[in-house]
């Protein structure tokens, strides 16, 4: 006979998957679950612990259990893919909002990130990515004008990579990536629908043309509950 806490676990996971318990809302309290299932507090806590271990909820001390988003989008770590290509692959309704586009002088940080010279100018764009109506990615792009002489809002709304490859005839080769988890900034809170989340997954991309010229530095800031970062690794024995 199945343990009672497993039955509770199965029923709650099914309700989370079916959106009866929606992401960012709270589960019923321990007392409510005890009454609903006619079980002890220990049984309820076993079920909640298993739910947390398997990524369905986040227990917050003094505030109850927060339901997490279980239908996460796969974000390829090793690949180099545009948001337009990613959205098409996901099959979700998407939109790009250009919050800022300007040509700026490089500072010490950009000189370092882009291997630029003090005389270089850089296109700075801030783009908000909406998927299924929610603002969940903030892209901050810095592109050396030496390689991309002009850039427009329309290009940024569509696909910068598509423009670079199809219109400018340049070939994007590879990227180096750094992935960190950071506290959300005021800028993140301004542009994204963070709801109850206060952490952000930051993917820093250093993107090179096929001739190994570094032309773009990007900070792609993702809401933590919406993505899982996936990779494929093959063991090589020498």
From TrEMBL:
Record carries keyword Ligase: no
Keyword Mitochondrion: no
Domain HTH gntR-type, residue spans: 2-70
Swiss-Prot/TrEMBL keywords: DNA-binding, Transcription, Transcription regulation
Highest taxon of source: Bacteria
Protein name as catalogued: Trehalose operon repressor
């Amino acid at each position: 006979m199945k343990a009672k806490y497993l039955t509770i676990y199965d029923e709650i996971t099914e309700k989370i998957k079916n959106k009866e318990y929606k992401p960012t809302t709270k589960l019923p309290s321990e007392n409510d679950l005890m009454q609903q299932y006619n079980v002890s507090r220990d049984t309820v806590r076993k079920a909640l612990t298993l739910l947390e271990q398997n990524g369905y909820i986040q227990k917050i001390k003094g505030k109850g259990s927060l339901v997490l988003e279980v239908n996460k989008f796969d974000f390829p770590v090793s690949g180099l893919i545009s948001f337009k290509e990613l959205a098409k692959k996901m099959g979700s309704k998407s939109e790009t909002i250009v919050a800022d586009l300007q040509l700026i002088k490089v500072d010490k940080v950009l000189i370092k990130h882009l291997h630029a010279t003090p005389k270089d100018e850089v296109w700075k764009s801030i783009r908000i990515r909406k998927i299924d109506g929610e603002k969940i990615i903030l892209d901050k792009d810095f592109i050396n004008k030496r390689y991309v002489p002009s850039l427009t809002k329309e290009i940024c709304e569509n696909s910068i990579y598509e423009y670079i490859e199809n219109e400018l005839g340049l070939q994007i080769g590879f990227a180096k990536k750094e992935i960190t988890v950071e506290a959300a900034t005021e800028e993140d809170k301004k542009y994204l629908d963070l709801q109850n989340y206060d952490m952000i997954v930051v993917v820093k991309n250093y993107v090179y043309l096929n001739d190994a010229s570094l032309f773009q530095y990007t900070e792609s800031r993702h809401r933590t509950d919406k993505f899982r970062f996936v990779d494929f690794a093959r063991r090589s024995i020498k």
